[in-house]
Structure formats: C-alpha cells, structure tokens
Amino acid sequence: MIPTRRLAAPGGFMKKSAEELGRLSRIAWNAEALGTPTKPYTLLNFEDASTVAGCKTMADRAVGGFSTASLDFEPADPASNTPAHARFHGNISTKLPANWRVERTGYAAFRNQDRGFWLFGRLYWDVDPYAYLALRIKSDGRRYTVNIQTDSIIETDIHQHRLYTRHHRVFGQTPMQQALNAKSDENAEIAESQRSRDIPDGLSDYPPESTILSSSSSATTAGITGWETVLLPFTSFVRTNHGYVMEPQTSLLRSRVKSIGIGLTDRIEGPFDLRIHKIWATNGMGEADIEEERRICGTDALPLDVGLQSGWTDQQRGKETTSQVGATPKEKGLKGLKSEWDD
C-alpha cells in the first residue's frame, strides 16, 4: 500500500500507527506490562503547539448564549521558568438568548478531538495500569471540572472530577478566607447541605481530603510560580450525563479513554484564565519527573515518590498496627511498587 499525502501527514494514520506501535514495543521490551508501571504516560503535552491545535473548544454560544472560550498556545519564557503551555480563557455570561427553549447558559470547555484510527482500529488511551490523572496547571481559582469520555455503552456519558487547586474558591472565597471562616455557622451549614444532598466527593465544592492528593493541601495561596501539579484518583471520577449525576454509578473504563478535557460550569459571570502545561497518567512522582516538577512548580512542587501503594492511604501514613511493630517497614509510593516487583 502506498500511503497518500493525508495518511503520511503529521498526525495522520501512518504517524499515529508508528507512535502507538513504538509505545507498545517499549512496554513489551521493558516488561512494564508485568507489573505496576512506575513511569508516567503522557496524554496531552501542551508544550507542543500541535497538541493545542488538536483540541476543540465549546461554549454556550452553540445554543445562542454569550459565553466565549479560547485555547491558545503560549510559548515558553525561560527567564521565569515558564514552560510552553495552553491558555484556556474567555468570559462566562449567564445572559439568556431570545429563545424560549434555552433555560440555562454559562459554560465553556475544551477537549482533545477524536484521536482517529491506527492499524488495529480506533485509537484510545489505555490508562488501566495507572491510579491517578495528573495535571500541571496554573489556575485563577474558579471551579473547573476535569472531564473524561470513554468508549462506554452510553456515548454521552462523561466521568467528571472537580479540579481542586491551591487557589480553589468556593462561593467567591479564596482558600484563606475559607480557613478564616471555617468555624462560622454559615459555612458549616453550607458544607452540611452538600453532604445531605448526596453530592459525590469528586464533585463537591469543598475539596475532600479522601479523594485528592495534590500540592493544594495547604490553605494558603503562597508559592513562587503559581504552577502546581494535581493528582486526581481515577476511582473518584463521577459518572454524569448532560451535567446530571447518573445512577447507578459505574467505574471509569480506563482501557478505552476517548477524550480528556476541562470545563467551567460555575455560572459566575466574568473572565476566566487557566493555564495547562501537561496532562498524564501516573502512579506517582518518580525521579525522572521531579526535576521538571521542582523547576516549574517551585515551592508548590509535589515531593518525590508521592504515589500509590496497595493499602496505603493518607489515614494510614506514618501509622503502624501492633502486628507490624518490629517488622521491616515497607516503602511507600513508586519505590514500594518497584521493591515489591523486584522481590
């Protein structure tokens, strides 16, 4: 078969097939499929302008609304250690169009376009061996949502998780203001009302410690660069359809991920500005990642080897049961995974 210009073009069928075959060959050669992978799997790297160009934006203008959304490529700035990245920005408007069928507006989003085909059919991301979706971002504090679409039975199903960041605001409050007002009756009532409405932890306005592992654990907005890396557990994503939580909940089909994107549906009028450097699947921060992490995120950088180990949770961190006293403590994170496999 002689490849046509379209098939041989950058990002075309032949290029995608070669890249996917190369990736699978490396996994087989390094025997990574036999254990839990300790290396990250890059999904969207916005240092590449073509990745930005390969995404699509959406806003309520499609139904006559007045919100705007753009995704632009921003070149690197070596002077400030700012990497090349994508800038998701625009303006949210809740103004209704002159159309009686439209009852609600005020949203904007972006996602990657269909990844197309390769030699063995439609191209998906297989993130099944990984525990977290990692995003390196610089946020303005608005309540963004991470959206993952898979090859599910119901095509319009989306799994979502709130993008909690160091600057995450609730009802117009910064994390510092939330901390100062944490003991107020009003805040307690708001938090309790969310629990009583059975809002899943992954979509709660208040970051639940049980579902988030990121550099956003501090309530302050201190930091040098403004960049931070957030790890969202795949198991905490919530199945939704057209913005509504669906029952029964089904787990994310991690072996057949079609698209990943970020949306803003807080319906708060005004501008928004989110910077995204990279999105990847991971089991933690390895030595190969930590230099870049510290260079870009500064004091907000995640520590080395923050990651997953069977049975390890924040509540168990630093604790030992009576039966473990005197036993050799197991390493946590990626080192623990590697040592288990080496043994």
From TrEMBL:
This is NADH:ubiquinone oxidoreductase intermediate-associated protein 30 domain-containing protein. Residues 45-168, 226-276 form the NADH:ubiquinone oxidoreductase intermediate-associated protein domain. Pfam families: CIA30. The keyword GTP-binding does not apply. Residues 329-343 have a biased composition (Basic and acidic residues). One of its GO terms (molecular function) is unfolded protein binding. It comes from Penicillium ucsense. InterPro entries: Galactose-bd-like_sf, NADH-UbQ_OxRdtase-assoc_prot30, NDUFAF1. Keywords: Chaperone, Mitochondrion. Residues 310-326 have a biased composition (Polar residues). Belongs to the CIA30 family. GO terms for cellular component: mitochondrion. GO terms for biological process: mitochondrial electron transport, NADH to ubiquinone; NADH dehydrogenase complex assembly. Residues 182-203, 308-343 are annotated as: Disordered. It is found in: Mitochondrion.
